[in-house]
Amino acid sequence: MYKLIKKDGNAKRGEFHTVHGVIQTPVFMNVGTVAAIKGAVSTEDLEQIKTQVELSNTYHLHVRPGDQLIKELGGLHKFMVWDKPILTDSGGFQVFSLATLRKIKEEGVYFHSHVDGRKIFMGPEESMQIQSNLASTIAMAFDECPSSVAERSYVENSVARTTRWLERCKKEMARLNSLEDTINKNQMLFGINQGAIFEDIRIDHAKRIAEMDLDGYAIGGLAVGESHEEMYHIIEAVVPHLPVEKPTYLMGVGTPANILEGVERGVDFFDCVYPTRNGRHGHLYTNQGKINLFNKKYEKDMRPIEEGCQCPACRRYSRAYIRHLLKAKEMLGMRLCVLHNLYFYNTMMEEIRDAIEKGAYQSYKEEKLYGMGQLTSGISKGDL
To answer: What is its EC number (predicted)?
Structure first.
């Protein structure tokens, strides 16, 4: 259940009540694709850095170690020793990203595993069954993510099929939640809005899925090649047609600037691999902008990554030491950088929630962007 606490313009401050705890929104979900955050980050670490929701991927866990095995071992929460909410992505994005390895049909998608090449079939029912085996808090509907440069006729057909798939997902989840051996009988379902950068297709689809009374709604298929102006325009067009009393999730986005702009347009949930991926390469987020620890100027810099930051890296270690670890290819260097970046994101979300509650979101956003040297409206996913 979603409770709207405060609106500041279109920015929403809410609480999302789940069987695994209450999520304070807006929220950034920390991405652990295969049930782990890349960079040797433990679930104890996630608690320290203020993680509210962990996100894992249905397709990847189905391929390895197998969702049936995870179910036998008590579900994903027990498997990875994490008692807070988990959202599982449906595998639909792999339909897009594994383009050379798949074939889309009405019944679902035929894949070849990126791990061992074996043939896999996944349709709406299979995706729901896998996610039920994983027993995540929130399951995502199975969809197709059409390319942002796809022809209009292709996008129309794709979106119509995604709607039919969503109806099948909803029906199958209701069946699975009623079964005696289902681990999480309170599993929630989010539908996904698609339509590339065609505003009218997006709006029509948003209206259609809003009628289906789901637990939440996602905007998918953005930050995959279109400009950030196009992305923000689509968000502005779609959000008013999704239920304000349900959470809105912008999938796979993005930079701190992207998130600040998304919140302003009414988005509640975000996820992105940026903080972890950039951290593993020594690129660190601070309130003064991004720094690259591989730069020689940090060789003798005994300051923390960011003065005043309370993350595990900044409380104890210097830029010089972490730079040395990265150069020496020591795992600890990557780990400390990832912890800092995730802490930065999670702390920024706390600040966002506080600013909305105070009715001061616009001034907070402008100050934050100015401090980070992002006076424009952000950068697209492909720019980093």
So the answer is: 2.4.2.29
